[in-house]
Specification:
The complex is a heterotrimer of chains A (228), B (232) and C (263).
Chain A (H helix, E strand, L loop, with lengths): L1 H45 L5 H14 L2 H11 L12 H27 L2 H9 L4 H31 L11 H11 L4 H30 L9
Helix pairs in contact in A: 1-2, 1-4, 1-7, 1-8, 2-4, 3-4, 4-6, 5-6, 6-8, 7-8
Chain B lengths: L1 H6 L2 H6 L1 H34 L3 H16 L2 H15 L8 H27 L2 H9 L4 H31 L11 H12 L2 H37 L3
Helix pairs in contact in B: 3-4, 3-6, 3-9, 4-6, 5-6, 6-8, 7-8, 8-10, 9-10
Chain C lengths: L1 H22 L2 H8 L1 E6 L8 E2 L5 E2 L1 H13 L2 E6 L2 H9 L5 E2 L7 H4 L2 E3 L4 E10 L16 E5 L3 H9 L4 E5 L3 H9 L5 E5 H10 L3 E3 L5 E5 L2 E3 L3 H16 L2 H9 L5 H5 L1
Parallel strand pairs in C: 1-4, 1-5, 8-9, 8-10
Antiparallel strand pairs in C: 2-3, 6-13, 7-10, 7-11, 7-12
The chains are: A mainly alpha (228), B mainly alpha (232), C alpha/beta (263).
Chain lengths: 228, 232, 263
């Protein structure tokens, strides 16, 4: 029995490894690009610029209120139907863009609430010493706010890593997809193979969560606030 | 109007309205029941995680870590095939019951985390004052800590609820016919991807917006305008 | 005057358009690109799967490879899941779909199908100790029958076993077989190739007597790609005549000869 399972693991190892690398690359790109975009949106949103706040709120709500599968689908299959040639992406590009935009909606909210969590007195004191709005943001508010974002951001990263499982819809052979192909070879062991996949995700995600816990203890975490 | 029909033929969608309605009912049922159950279980998890008894905290922490670091897809399969082997009476459960069980088990740790943060944000002094007034532990929880914690945690709870609602779409792997399935059916029978996927998106967005509205109402009602005004 | 100018411009644009179209149709595109882009679905042996060496193979895949070789171009496979196949074709991500797709009237309203490449037989499968002998025995109320989500197998259950309850699985045929083997279903419906594969894998299943439907399976191209569609039809004619199609169907479909090479 054990030998049978061991043989399956050995036979599948190269495919699952390939799938894991794909998951790793896509999730890293999504996380990095999504964080940059989300950071920008979060900062702008926290500045309460008339008109922009509502617009960005709608952006965030639309992305959070609809399934990622549907968003991915729109980016890969529907955008090319508009006939604009530079919107016709291959699966990699579509996956990167969709994942980054999805990530940005979560990151934006965390960044905005972290900025709000910095005591108003800090900003007022900075005004008193004659700093401009941008200087206050850059030198006083952001350094403090960024520390608060680390812990909740890790939770989002783990969520994003797990979301990459859907990317097979556009033809990306990531970890879950490789597992499903493997299941067709060993249909009887569907539960075992899903178990192996779960273990690999766990090995990737758990350290991120531990890091978040550790950071939270060190610097505290931002409480996400209302979106509107 | 013909350009709309080209891009989104609502006449085809209209033919599938009953299927979408059936799917929506299943999605709302699964999400609603799982939401209530996972908040209750989440409160329990939060209390355990805040307790000082390690023998109680350790196993719960392991369960939380497992749920948070593995995909829901796998968890659903494990519940669907594993639960009947573990609990013989679960054999006769409907697919929906398995779905709700899986979603609850998946969602509760996130709820627990949010509630824990909420409880910790209630100033210690209040708890001690309530103790001074002679309140018992359940009374302190019920009248002092939980109402405040709940008002504070409503926005993140909303976020988690939105995730939960979207996650119900995975129940189709254990044959629950929910909202996404209706769209997949349309696409398979009529080969109209735009109609299928845009309708799915609009449906989920509609639920999300209703939940958003209710949350804001609940927040005002629960804590009162004075509490909200005193915020930031 | 303005109208005249508009008309003139329109005529010029139309001429250019026609000239452009006549110059480069989808077939020229493929030859110029040097690549035949094919959408496949890894739904399982023997139609389309990944073998022990990690190579994509199966009846539909081998036919597509053969076509590319005869055209003198490289074949590039894009792996989608079932719901991604048709959108991928419509969005121009691939030149054709090579999968076990039945040319239903609704699908044919959106795509062009080649002449049937091969036929699949839909059969029912049950637990070994089930009292059912033929698929008709499964047509009883209170029985749960499984099929993959939004498939023609589900349609077959609705049409031929209307008394039973249909359970549609989004997770693919392996999930259906697992549910059946674990006792969560009383029966399931799929194609003969897939089912025989599962019966060998799971010790406790049996195929029930009777073929429920015999469905033509065809390759699909975009609705306005007439040249490619006719090329495919011609190809079916040709490989039928020189018996290459027979050989492939015999190897993959009617025997288990492929197993020792690929499993």
């Amino acid at each position: 029995m054990v030998e049978r399972y061991w043989n399956i693991v050995v036979a599948l190892a190269p495919f699952l490894w390939k799938g894991f690398l794909e998951t790793l690359i896509v999730s890293l790109v999504g996380v990095v690009a999504g964080s940059l975009l989300g950071f920008l949106i979060g900062v702008i949103r926290s500045q309460r610029v008339a008109g922009l706040t509502g617009l960005l709120g709608a952006y965030i709500h639309c992305l959070r209120g609809t399934p990622f599968l549907v968003q991915l689908y729109l980016f890969y299959f529907v955008l090319p139907n508009t006939g604009i040639s530079w919107l016709s992406w291959d699966s990699r590009t579509a996956a990167f863009v969709a994942l980054s935009i999805y990530t940005s909606s979560y990151v934006a909210e965390i960044v905005a609430s972290a900025i709000d969590a910095v005591p108003v007195g800090q900003s007022e004191a900075a005004t008193a010493v004659g700093m401009t709005r941008l200087q206050r943001l850059w030198h006083v508010v952001l350094p403090q706010a960024l520390k608060l974002t680390v812990a909740p951001m890790s939770g989002v990263y783990v969520m994003i890593i797990k979301s990459t499982a859907i990317l097979s819809v556009v033809g990306i052979s990531e970890l879950t997809r490789q597992g499903e192909i493997a299941i067709l070879r060993y249909p009887r062991d569907i539960l075992f193979i899903y178990g192996v996949i779960a273990a690999i995700y766990f090995l990737y995600c758990y350290p991120v969560l531990r890091f978040a816990r550790w950071m939270e203890k060190r610097v505290g975490s931002a409480r996400p606030t209302e979106l509107d | 109007m013909s350009w709309i029909l080209d891009f989104y033929n609502y006449k085809i969608v209209a033919q599938y309205l009953d299927r979408f309605a059936t799917g929506m009912a299943a999605t709302l049922t699964a999400a609603g029941i799982s939401l209530v159950l996972s908040v209750l279980l989440g409160i329990l998890i939060a209390l355990v995680m805040l307790s000082k008894k390690a023998w109680l905290r350790r196993p719960v922490a392991a369960y939380v870590a497992f749920i948070r670091a593995t995909p829901l897809l796998v968890q659903i399969y494990l519940v669907y095939y594993g639960l009947p082997a573990l609990l013989p009476f679960a054999k006769s459960w409907s697919d929906m019951a398995f779905g709700v069980a899986a979603l609850t088990l998946n969602s509760a740790p996130y709820m627990g985390e949010i509630i824990r943060a909420g409880i910790e944000s209630v100033p210690r002094g209040q708890f001690e004052a309530a103790k001074g007034l002679g309140m018992t532990y359940p009374q302190r929880l019920r009248y002092v800590v939980l109402p405040q914690a709940f008002a504070i945690t409503l926005p993140p709870l909303l976020g988690q609820t939105a995730v939960l609602i979207k996650d119900t779409s995975l129940l189709s792997i254990i044959t629950v016919f929910e909202f996404t399935s209706a769209g997949i059916l349309l696409n398979s029978e009529r080969v109209r991807p735009n109609e299928s996927f845009l309708t799915i998106a609009l449906g989920y967005l509609a639920i999300y917006l209703v939940v958003l509205l209710l949350t804001n109402k609940a927040r005002a009602a629960l804590a009162g305008p004075a509490w909200n005004a005193g915020g930031r | 005057m303005l109208n005249l100018r508009k008309t003139f411009l329109g005529v010029v644009a139309a001429c250019l358009g026609i000239a452009g179209a006549a110059k480069a149709d989808e077939m020229d595109e493929i030859l110029k690109r040097g690549e035949l882009r094919v959408a496949v679905q890894s739904q399982g042996a023997p139609v389309s799967f990944v073998n022990k060496k990690g190579e994509r193979t199966g009846l539909a895949v081998e036919l597509a490879k053969m076509m590319a070789t005869d055209l003198g171009v490289k074949v590039v496979f894009q792996d989608y899941d079932w719901k991604g196949l048709i959108p991928a074709l419509q969005a121009g991500k691939v030149d054709m779909i090579a999968a076990d797709m039945t040319p239903t009237p609704q699908r044919a309203a959106q795509l062009l199908f080649s002449r049937p490449m091969f036929y699949q037989e839909t059969v029912a499968v049950a637990l070994k100790d089930s009292p059912a002998k033929s698929f008709q025995d499964l047509n009883k109320s209170g029985l749960n029958l499984g099929a993959t989500q939004a498939s023609s197998y589900g349609e077959a259950i609705k049409r031929f076993m209307p008394q039973a309850t249909l359970k549609e699985f989004a997770g693919g045929t392996a999930a259906v077989a697992q549910a059946l083997s674990a006792g969560r279903l009383d029966g399931a419906v799929s194609d003969l190739g897939n089912v025989s594969n599962f019966v060998r894998e799971f010790g406790n299943l049996k195929i029930l007597d009777g073929v429920i439907t015999r469905e033509p399976l065809a390759f699909a191209v975009q609705a306005n790609h007439f040249h490619l569609k006719h090329w495919l039809d011609n190809y079916v004619e040709l490989i039928t005549a020189d018996r290459r199609l027979d050989k492939q169907v015999e190897y993959w479909w009617n025997s288990s000869a492929w197993e020792k090479d690929h499993k």
